[in-house]
Write a structure and sequence with these properties.
The chain is an alpha+beta fold. The protein has four domains: about 1-90, Rossmann fold; about 120-185, Dna Ligase, domain 1, CATH 3.30.1490.20; about 190-310, ATP-grasp fold, B domain (D-amino Acid Aminotransferase, Chain A, domain 1); about 325-420, Phosphoribosylglycinamide synthetase, C-terminal domain (Glycinamide Ribonucleotide Synthetase, Chain A, domain 4, Alpha-Beta Complex). Helices cover about 30% and strands about 25% of the residues. Strands 3-2-1-4-5 form a five-stranded parallel β-sheet, with helices on both faces. The radius of gyration is 20 Å and the shape is globular. The model has no long low-confidence stretch (mean pLDDT about 95).
Length: about 425
């Protein structure tokens, strides 16, 4: 089949890299793509709109389109493709509200009786401050709209919370996305990313991953889109996986269908594993970034076949094979990130890193006069596998040490939580 990927980040590079190895894929395209994606797919231009993406798919005669980022899904790209009779992987705009609106998401969880944190919706400073009195500190503040992973703030003190509320509601922090807020009780435990591929009825689970959202080691500093992730089957026990499927995934898919918005594509449940069991922190309606980089490194089956089945409502009985080796992705970020990133810095060492066996997924990159240069906040996702988690971590960081660009910063502790959990630190 001919496959088109919509997007330009590290997640899309990882999807393209894996699909390029699928026996069933005869031609691979991406729009707009990036220099890394261009190594495995042909990048084609398109207007950044549902109609523009449809025209791109038609121009290359794509049999299947895969949507990477959330914004096109919320904008209704799936609806436009389906109306034109084109196969596409992703949810409708109505179903994409699970990520597009935190308020919709939380209220949906209440209706579906999905375990989650207690919350209050607020649209004014007065309403938000009243909610603070209910939950105390630490407290979680969430922008209602899409905020590129930067719309969640954990405030440890009343002073921090009041400053964050003003920054969110004023638009200073995440623009219009912060016009409405969710104020949420703080949950203690370990975060896990659990993603399934759905055709609206059946689901195929992916391996569990753990993201690292804070910018600095030890989960300190402001939240980012993700500074690294690791994939290891031991993150969840068989009993925990069964509980997540029974108490969270199955009720979510069933309720979405009952409400007239069947969920198709990738359903991402960001979970907190509490003493009382798993609770949903948030839904995403696409593959995670940087979780995808680690997942694609560990996938050992034809990804395109599963995507085709999901797009055609035929996932029943399908599955994905995974290697036992854990995978680790370390994100290299540009100067200024997660604030305003500096761009235009030359990148050196990608080839040397890959010569060590790692895969360097490009995200915030562009072609410059002297080669590849930075053009975004999260620049590269250096990904490696190993016979055990410690070996995978070592392999990833040895590759990281080969790369340089001015202002480059990254976390040194990706995967360490797993080592501590299993007594290997």
């Amino acid at each position: 089949m001919k496959v088109l990927i919509i997007g330009s980040g590290g997640r899309e590079h990882a999807i393209a890299w894996r699909l390029a190895q699928s026996p069933s894929v005869t031609a691979l395209y991406a729009t707009p793509g990036n220099p890394g994606i261009a190594r495995v797919a042909r990048c084609v231009p398109a207007a950044a709109s549902p109609q523009g993406w449809l025209e791109a798919a038609e121009s290359v005669e794509a049999d299947l389109t895969v949507v990477g980022p959330e914004a096109p899904l919320v904008a209704g790209v799936v609806d436009v493709f389906r109306a034109a009779g084109k196969a596409i992987v992703g949810p409708s705009s109505k179903a994409a509200r699970l990520e597009g609106s935190k308020i919709f998401s939380k209220e949906f969880m209440t209706r579906a009786r999905i375990p989650t944190a207690e919350f209050v919706r607020a649209e004014t400073e007065e309403e938000t401050l009243k909610a603070l009195a209910r939950f105390g500190c630490p407290v979680v503040l969430k922008a209602d709209g899409l905020a590129a992973g930067k719309g969640v703030i954990i405030a440890n003190t009343r002073t921090e919370a009041e400053a964050a509320i003003r920054a969110l509601l004023s638009g200073e922090l995440v623009g219009k996305a912060g016009a409405r807020l969710v104020v949420e009780e703080y949950l203690a435990g370990e975060e896990v990313s659990y993603i399934v591929l759905s055709d609206g009825r059946s689901v195929v689970p992916l391996e569990p991953t753990q993201d690292h959202k804070a910018v600095y080691d030890g989960d300190t500093g402001p939240n980012t889109g993700g500074m690294g992730a690791y994939c290891d089957p031991r993150i969840l026990t068989a009993a925990q996986r069964a509980e997540i499927l029974d108490r969270i995934i199955a009720p979510t898919v069933a309720r979405m269908s009952a409400e007239g918005s069947p969920f198709t594509g990738f359903l991402y449940a960001g979970l907190m594993m509490t003493e009382g069991g798993p609770k949903v922190l948030e839904y995403n309606v696409r593959l995670g970034d940087p979780e995808t980089q680690a997942l694609m490194h560990g996938l050992d089956s034809d990804f395109a076949e599963a995507l085709w089945a999901a797009a055609h409502g035929d996932l029943a009985g399908a599955g994905l094979r995974w290697r036992a080796d854990p995978s680790v992705c370390v994100v290299l970020a540009s100067a200024g990130y997660p604030g305003t990133p500096r761009t235009g810095d030359a990148i050196a060492g990608i080839e040397a890193a890959e010569a060590l066996g790692a895969t360097v997924f490009q995200a915030g990159t562009r072609a410059g006069a002297g080669g590849v240069e930075t053009c975004g906040g999260r620049v590269l996702g250096v990904t490696a596998s190993g016979a055990g988690l410690a070996e995978a971590i070592g392999n990833a960081y040895r590759a990281v040490d080969q790369i340089h660009f001015d202002g480059m910063h990254f976390r040194r502790d990706i995967g360490q939580k797993g080592l501590k959990r299993w007594g290997q630190a």
